[in-house]
C-alpha cells in the first residue's frame, strides 16, 4: 500500500512524506483558528505550494509578519488539502525566514495585478510575477525543443561570431563597435586610423545575422544551425522589434526552397507540440489571462498543413479584398505588417509560407528564379504577429552571384571568402532565420516582444 503521489513545486512526493521547500512568499493570510496560509513559489512551475503554519510554531509571531517577497526554507509534511484552490499543502514543521522585505509598502511586486508596462520598469523584479515566470518557462521549453529538434535530425550547432565586418542583410542597420581604451589616445598618436570609431583599426559591427558565417560550415558539414543573439540598429518602436534579439538559423546543403520551407514547418510543429505537452500549466494561464485562443491556435498549427502562397498571388488577393489598407499594394512593394496580418489572420486564419518575392526588395544572396525578377525567398507569416521566419535558397552560381553584386553596387573584394564557397565545389543550399522572441510571443499570446525576453533592448533603452 503506497501513499498517493502528489506534485509539490514540480516534484513528486508521497502524501505523509516530510520535505524541505525553499522559495518566496507570494501571499499570506491568517485564519481566526490560529493558523496562517502561505503561498510559496520557487519558479519551477506555475502553481505555488500552500504552506499551513500552525500557531504552535516557535516563531509563529514572525510568520504572521511575512509579506510578499520574503524568502523562506520550510520543512513540512505533505497533506491532501481540505481547502479550495489546491490539491496538496505542506503542514509546516519549521519555517526558516531567510530574507525579509524591508518595507512591504515599497515592494514593487506586492501581490496584486500590475500592468505589463509597469512590470517593464522593474526588469530585475518582474521574474517573480506569474506572467513573467510563465513566459520564462515557455521560452526555455522552446529553446530546449529547438536544440532537440535539430540534434535529432543530425544538425550541428555552430557558434557564429557576434563581432563582424559584414552586413549580412545589406540594410545598413548595424551597431558600430569602438574600443573605449582608444578614446584616450591623443589624436597626434592615432596616425591615419580613427581608433575612436574602430576596433584597433578595423571597422567592426555587431552581427545582424549569423547566416554568411554558417553558410561556410554548411558547405562542409551539410546540416548546421546557429542559435544566438543578433542586433539591429533600426529605430523601430513597435511591438515586434527589438534592437537585440535571438535568432535560430538552420542552413542545409543540397536543399532547395521547398525543402527548407518543409523544415521550418516541421520545426514549428515540433516545438509547439513540446510546449503543449510540457507546459500545460503555463499555457492554461495564458489562455485565461492573455489570449483565450492561444491553446486552440497551437493545437491547430500542430495538426494542419501550412498554406503555401506565392507573393504574386498574395498581391492579387490584397488588391481584390474590400479592406482599405494604409499602404496601397502593387506588385514590387514589400508587404507591410497590416498586409501580412490580413493574409494570415483574415484570409487564411493560419500560418502562411509566402514564397518568391520580387528580387529588388530582398537581400543580395538570394537565388534568382528563372523569371529573372523574383528570388527563391520565403517568409512565414503567423496570425497575431506577422513575419516570424525569413529564409531563402542561396545563389550558388558564381556568375549569377557576381552579376547581382555588381547590380547592387557591392564589391567582390568584400565578399571574397563568401565567393570562395561558390568557386570551390559549389552546391545548392538553403536556410532560414527564426526570430525567437516573435516565436515566444506567438506561442504565449503576449502582445509585445519586450515582455518575452528577460532584458529588452529597444532604442534608448539599455538599463539593467
Ligand atoms: O528576415 P530577416 O532579416 O532574415 C535574416 O536575417 C536572414 N539572414 C535569415 C536567414 O535566412 N538565415 O530576419 C529573420 C527573422 C525575422 O523573420 C524576424 O522573425 C526576426 O528575425 N527579426 C526580428 N525580431 C525582433 N526584432 C527585430 N528587430 C527583428 N528583425 C528580424
Ligand atoms: Mg525578413
Automatic annotation (TrEMBL):
Which organism is this protein's natural source? Answer: Alteromonas pelagimontana
Which taxonomic lineage is given here?
Bacteria, Pseudomonadati, Pseudomonadota, Gammaproteobacteria, Alteromonadales
Q: Tell me which family the UniProt entry assigns to this protein.
A: Belongs to the class-II aminoacyl-tRNA synthetase family.
Q: For this protein, what is the EC number? A: 6.1.1.22
Where is this gene product found?
Cytoplasm
ATP-binding: is it a keyword of this entry?
Answer: yes
Q: Which reaction does it catalyse?
A: tRNA(Asn) + L-asparagine + ATP = L-asparaginyl-tRNA(Asn) + AMP + diphosphate + H(+)
Report the residue ranges that make up the Aminoacyl-transfer RNA synthetases class-II family profile domain in this protein: 137-454
Quaternary structure and interacting proteins, as annotated: Homodimer.
This protein's name: Asparagine--tRNA ligase
Gene Ontology CC annotation, any one:
cytoplasm
The main location is cytoplasm
Q: Which InterPro entries match?
A: Aa-tRNA-synt_II, aa-tRNA-synth_II, aa-tRNA-synth_II/BPL/LPL, Asn-tRNA-ligase, Asp/Asn-tRNA-synth_IIb, NA-bd_OB-fold, NA-bd_OB_tRNA
Enzyme class of the recorded protein, top EC level? ligase
Tell me the PANTHER family matching this sequence: ASPARAGINE--TRNA LIGASE, MITOCHONDRIAL-RELATED (PTHR22594:SF34), ASPARTYL/LYSYL-TRNA SYNTHETASE (PTHR22594)
Name of one Pfam family that matches: tRNA-synt_2
Q: Which domain of life is it from?
A: Bacteria
The record's GO molecular-function terms, alphabetically, read: asparagine-tRNA ligase activity; ATP binding; nucleic acid binding
Its GO biological process annotations read: asparaginyl-tRNA aminoacylation
